[in-house]
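Example record for the data management plan.
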Amino acid sequence: MNRQTLTKVLMTTSFIVCMTMKSDAQQINASHLFGNHSYCGHVIDLISQHGVNNTFHRGSTFHSSPFGHVLIPSGEIGDLQIVEVHQHEPLDSACGPTFAIVIQNQSTRRVCGFHVSAVAVFGHICPTSPNVTVKTDKIEAGESLEVLVTLPIEALAMGNRNGQVIGFQRLVVAIDSFDELMESDEANNLKAFDAASIPVVSVSVSTTVESESVSTIQSDSVQNVQPLAENLVPQSEVPQIDSLPNGQNESPNSQPDVDSLRSAIKMLDTSNAMGDVAAASGI
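Corresponding structural encoding:
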């Protein structure tokens, strides 16, 4: 009986230990194997449908809804368009390249919550190419919006040529990349650029503007302090010398000579004493 109980206890303990232990294989997912946490299959689907650097205008179209198909006039259908793409000058070598994508809303309504994707391509595009997807907040009717996207640092090291690391060769930009909006021209949502043809814009101008503003504030403060200091200094009033009577010029700070007065008093006393002695001898 005791042997059976001991066997059950050992089996239960072993089962609990096996259940609590985690295998290292369960902590590895597909992103660790492919080396990329995002995929660009949705961009590849758009390229298969519309190609790149194309345009397609349609006068009217049907839109499917839960209540059936609805005919929407062409004037009511808006369109998003890629206006310009430029690259920011790299500031940190540990980060990937940053691109500014200018998008224009050619419609009469506000557009909210669409996605913008950028894919770095070396050779042919594949689902695991370095890519990034961001979601915009909103863009007003008839206005333009600049969206910043930063590619992974793997985009700078995608090939090897005679021992030299080579970055991406082409950049593919897709707006409304998940094809959620109904537009009059779906084909102009995809643009492909050669990496060497994308202009690089410096972003260090803001530092210069800040230093100029500080120097301007300091100069203004100095100019404002000087007249205040002059007003606080009292001006001493100098008495006019010509206003004294009888043409006597006296200094307000002049003091009598005490020693001269004392000697004059002694001389007077001596002369008075000698006069008294002479008068006494004459009697």
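Summary line stored alongside the record: The longest strand covers residues 80-88.
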